[in-house]
Structures are given as structure tokens and as C-alpha cells.
Amino acid sequence: MKTNKKGDIWISAVLYIALGIIILSIVLAVGLPTIQKMRDNHVAKQTKEIMFVLDNNIRSVFNQGPGAQTQLKIEIGKGDLDINTGTNEIIWTTRTKALLSEPGYPVDEGNLQILTEDSAQKGEYDISLTLAYTHITLDYTGINPIKGTHLLSISNTGGGTVKITQL
Predict the structure, then answer these.
(1) 132 — phi, psi (to 5°)?
(2) Sequence-ordered alpha helix ranges (H) in 5-134
């Protein structure tokens, strides 16, 4: 009895390729959500650092007195950064799959308040990082929301006002 070895080799090759594709699909299905959560967590940590640096620069310029100024380069990788002159707040918001804090309960880290809320989509959360100023009046000239890389000029114009200008 003679067997067709060429056919057996091709059938084996097709089965191995199919098995490899199935294994890769399973690994990607499990790994991609985890990678996305890690990426979102990293973006949130980077943005927290940016917010701390921005807050330190604003407070430093305010404490130095009228005429003091500095420039700061910021990079917002994901989400929106709004400077609200009506409430004297700087707020970064984004939607993420990473859970940064207990939903519905604000967490304070120094001058920064972190709030995680459930979104309309299951498994996703709306995150906001807020810097609120009670003794400093913010005056902002630029486009809201701030996205991407921008150079900001921060200056003390006197009378308790810090002017932030997008260059």
C-alpha cells in the first residue's frame, strides 16, 4: 500500500498554521485589553505628573509676586485639559478602562483631586484630575481644551491673578 507523502505534508502544514493562528488569536484576545489598561494607567500617571508640575509653576509664580513669569512645555497624550477661568480650575478628563480610584469617591493627592466615575459603557470609567485655586485667579489666553504638545507662559499680573498664555 502506497501513501501520498506530499499530501500528508501539506495537511500537516495547514493544521500547524491553523493551530498557530488560533493560539495567536487567543493570546491577542487576552493580552490586548491588559495592554490597553496598562497604557491608560501610564497616561494617567504621566498626566498627574504634568498637573503637579503645572501647579508648582503656578504657585511659584504667584508667590514670587507681580512680574514673575515662567514657561512650561506640556504634553497631553490622551484626554482633554481645560483651564476654566470661571471656577479657577484646571481639569484633565478622559475615558479609560483603567480603574484609578474607587468610583464616586474623590481622592486628594496634595492639591490634585482625582475622581473616577462609572461611564455609560460597561468596563470603562470617566477620570478627572482637578487643580482648584481659591486664592489665585486664573486668566487664560488660548484654546480649550488643550491637546498634544504646547508651550505655556505663566505670569503673575498682580492683584492675585496668574495669567496663562498658550504660545
Answers:
(1) -110, 135
(2) 5-64
Number of H helices, E strands in the chain: 1, 8
Question: Which of the four pLDDT bands, split at 50, 70 and 90, describes residue 13?
Answer: confident
> CA distances (Å), 150 to each of 19, 23, 47, 144, 156, in order?
48, 43, 14, 12, 20
> Helix or strand or coil: residue 144?
coil
> Could you tell me the pTM of the whole model?
0.78
Q: What whole-number percentage of the chain has pLDDT above 70?
A: 96
Over residues 64-92, the pLDDT tens digits come to: 989 999 999 999 888 899 999 999 999 99
**Neighbour-count burial for 1-17, b at 16+ CB within 10 Å, e otherwise:** eeeeeeeeeeeeeeeee
Task: Report CA dihedral (56, 57, 59, 63) to the nearest 10 degrees.
Answer: 130
Contact by Cβ (8 Å): 120, 35: no
